[in-house]
Design brief:
heterodimer; A: alpha+beta; elongated; B: five-stranded parallel β-sheet; Mitochondrial ribosomal protein S28 (chain A); Ribosomal_bS1m (chain A); structural constituent of ribosome (chain B)
């Protein structure tokens, strides 16, 4: 029992917990039977030792996977462009006056070419944007889920090249 | 009575032993058929050995080396739609929702993607037909070039109602249906589920599908939770599937060459 309490179980070792509970019941049943108590205890002790070794090796492996999990969460708030955030995007498609700009979020945004200095903006140029909404969605009357436009909404600020020229 | 028992016993022996039992009255007819059968069984045993090879090891094609969690993160595979677009059945695959945007749990994606790539590799190894389906107009060219590069098939246009279920009338009676269908986006342009998912389930064809947070993963055999809207993510998936299929086909050719050298010697002896 003390051995069971001392072992630390992580979230993923719930399976181990159930197997330990089964070991405990088998141990108690062996004691009650009284026919071969030594083999019951010895078998349980051996199994506990093996499990402890496995748990120690697993925590060693798990540190690798935890470090894989951490960037997912820690960089989360940096990577998702939130509302009213100024980001730098690059234009990947141009259709006359419409510029399709990708700024690192899930969707791209479509902006109109500005009147001043617009001719300089071609495919591959970098621009500064203020992201108003990362995904344009709305729930209409009678709908179960939102309708999404598969686009973001952003406002073009001064492009980087123009700000460098001014400097 | 003894004769009847003897014939019964002999018949029983024949059913059990197959080609090895020889009957004196049928003579040379049986001998020739037995020699053909033995050579067929030898070639069959070699192909069986080739086909059973991937089943002995968990990851013969080493698909886990093709990608890492960091690659998925860089390709923005974890980004989902807004909370309002979420499908109830996708909730087990979601990690969290940051300010109304759903984030897909990449640990689960890694597991599911490995399973899916393993299945693709095994199907390609056995010479199965793989069909890529996607109704996103933005990526239809990418999907078609991917299919062309790995020698498989793609269908990125309007899906007619009976393509799978009515194939013997729409095409010809003996047409061969795909052995695996890969959906690079499970929704069509009206945000309804693609008809092929239901049809493939009806025709017992296994499916792999990239399911976003607004998709229904229930009918898909190997769902892969991930982003299906960003071009970077789609390019990653296409590259991964292309690499697995090419790897599997190369492995098959290698195995056949390896055993092909020993095949003619076995049949001659």
């Amino acid at each position: 029992m003390a051995v069971l309490c001392r072992l630390r179980f992580g979230v993923r070792a719930a399976v181990r917990l159930s197997s330990c509970i089964s070991i405990r019941t088998s141990f108690s049943s062996d004691c009650e039977a009284g026919t071969r108590p030594e083999s019951g205890f010895a078998a349980a002790f051996q199994r506990q030792a093996v499990l402890q070794r496995e748990a120690e090796s697993y925590t060693g492996d798990q540190s690798g996977s935890i470090s894989g999990q951490e960037p997912n969460f820690a960089l989360l708030f940096q990577m998702v462009p939130v509302r009213d955030r100024v980001v730098v995007g690059n234009i990947f498609h141009v259709v006359r006056d419409d510029l399709y700009i990708d700024f690192g979020g899930k969707f791209h945004c479509v902006c109109r070419r500005p009147a001043a200095g617009g001719e300089r903006l071609q495919r591959g140029s970098r621009v500064r944007l203020k992201v108003l909404d990362s995904e344009l969605t709305a729930r209409f009357l009678g709908a179960k889920t939102d309708t999404t436009l598969l686009e973001a909404q952003a406002v073009l600020l001064d492009s980087e090249s123009t700000s460098q020229d001014i400097k | 009575m003894a004769a009847r028992a003897l014939t019964k016993g002999l018949l029983g022996l024949r059913h059990v032993r197959g080609a090895t039992v020889k009957f004196s009255n049928t003579g040379h007819h049986f001998a020739t058929s037995s020699s053909i059968k033995s050579s067929e069984s030898q070639t069959n045993s070699v192909t069986e050995k080739i086909l059973n090879l991937p089943l002995e090891k968990p990851d013969l094609f080493r698909v886990s080396e093709l990608f890492s969690l960091k690659d998925l993160f860089d390709a923005r595979v974890h980004l989902g739609h807004k909370k309002g677009c979420r499908h109830r059945l996708m909730e087990p695959y979601l990690y969290d929702s940051s300010l109304d945007y759903d984030i897909i749990d990449l640990d689960k994606t890694v597991e599911h993607l490995q399973l899916a790539l393993n299945t693709t590799a095994e199907t390609a190894y056995r010479g199965g037909i793989i069909l890529f389906v996607s109704r996103r107009r933005q990526f239809c060219h990418l999907v078609e070039t991917t299919a062309k590069d790995c020698g498989e098939y793609a269908h990125t246009r309007y899906w007619q109602g009976g393509l799978l279920t009515n194939a013997h009338i729409q095409y010809s009676p003996g047409v061969r249906l795909p052995d695996l269908i890969i959906f690079l986006s499970t929704l069509n342009n009206v945000f309804q589920q693609h008809v092929a998912i239901r049809d493939a389930a009806k025709m017992n064809i296994p499916t792999i599908g990239v399911v976003d947070s607004n998709c229904n993963p229930s009918l898909i055999t190997y769902p892969v939770p991930g982003n299906d809207d960003t071009p970077v993510a789609m390019e990653l998936y296409c590259r991964l599937f292309k690499m697995t299929i090419n790897r599997a086909k190369d492995k098959r050719r290698q195995m056949e060459l390896l055993h092909g050298l020993s095949e003619p010697s076995a049949s001659s002896s």
